[in-house]
Design a protein that fits this description.
about 35% helix, 13 helices, about 325 residues, alpha+beta, about 15% strand
Length: about 325
């Protein structure tokens, strides 16, 4: 069964090929401090989507986001990360907003320019961000969970709602329309809203679950489609020195071609990153019967998340001979 609202690849269409980003994904999802991450699977998935970054080989789950970093992340969730970078160095935009010369934080200026334009912050908050270092919206001030969720609702076009939440859940009146809208849209249930309504600063351990809740809104903005599927068949054959592996999962057909004589880095470009089976691996670790989430971008497989490993050790069924 495919995720609602997503397109379907016909069973007789050409097999899906790898996106070619395996080495990059491996570097983004491997953390030395993974045991301290509350939602490791979600953190890895959004790292593989180029949204959630670690710090070197560490995730740093206790890190609290500053406004500048939070805005950068918000714009990556809508596929506009580079737009913010470009705006920071657009002299016409800087002059129009009254911004002066570059400094060490100039990379963040563009995200404030976009945030002002998109209604995430007002003109007074914009001025405070650059003139009052201790103000709530200053570039180095830490962002609250409530304000981050408000920004997510605005950027992902979640309609605000005048309907109050049950009396057992108190929400600051300034944020109630966004939390109520999020509830009405089915993004978070009341328990989750209660957990993310406490006034506190946003940490990296909060982000994986928040982003997962907005996944249906995020993926289309990145031109990414998600296909849940169960592996029914795996065929392997050789074409000369090239191993051809075809995975049948639901209506999907996924194929990799790996020349065993090529260097490892070349082989990785022709492979698919697979998460959810211990350390990050490639499609050779997939087994018949496993349940997958297949992330597809531009008609190619970006990565695969194994959501339910198989109990059996059946590797593949092969009905093709060497050519």
């Amino acid at each position: 069964t495919l995720a609602a609202g997503l397109s379907v690849f016909a069973a007789d269409s050409a097999p899906l090929a790898p996106y070619g980003n395996t080495e990059d994904v491996f570097s983004l999802v491997t953390y030395a401090d993974k045991d301290s991450i509350y939602y490791l699977d979600y953190a890895q998935d959004f790292a593989a989507l180029d949204i959630l970054y670690g710090m070197g080989n560490r995730y740093n789950p206790g890190y609290r986001y500053e406004n500048s970093s939070a805005l950068h992340l918000i714009y990556r969730t809508v596929g506009r990360g580079q737009e913010g970078m470009d705006a920071a160095y657009n002299m016409e935009m800087r002059q129009a907003a009254g911004l002066g010369a570059f400094d060490e934080m100039s990379w963040a200026d563009g995200y404030y320019l976009l945030a002002l334009k998109d209604g995430l912050i007002g003109s007074q908050e914009f001025v405070q961000a650059f003139t009052q270092p201790a103000s709530e919206f200053a570039r180095k001030s830490e962002v609250s969970v409530q304000n981050f969720i408000r920004w997510m609702c605005i950027m992902h076009n979640i309609p605000t709602s005048p309907e109050p939440l049950p009396e057992s859940i108190y929400v600051d009146p300034n944020y109630m329309p966004y939390y109520s809208g999020m509830y009405q849209a089915g993004i978070m249930n009341l328990t989750e809203i209660r957990d993310f309504n406490q006034w506190r600063y946003l940490s990296k351990n909060d982000l994986p679950l928040i982003l997962k809740k907005f996944e249906k809104q995020i993926l289309p903005r990145l031109n990414v489609e998600l296909f849940p599927a169960t592996v029914s068949q795996i065929n392997e054959s050789y074409q000369g020195e090239t191993l051809v592996r075809t995975i049948k999962a639901g209506s999907l057909s996924i194929q990799t071609k790996t020349n065993r004589l090529e260097p490892v880095f070349s082989q990785l470009k022709n492979e698919i990153p697979v998460l959810g089976k211990g350390e990050p691996d490639t499609s050779g670790c997939i087994r018949v019967g496993e349940k997958l989430n297949v992330y597809v971008k531009d008609g190619k497989v970006l990565f695969i998340r194994v959501t339910s490993p198989a109990n059996s050790c059946l590797l593949y069924t092969s009905d093709a001979a060497d050519d």
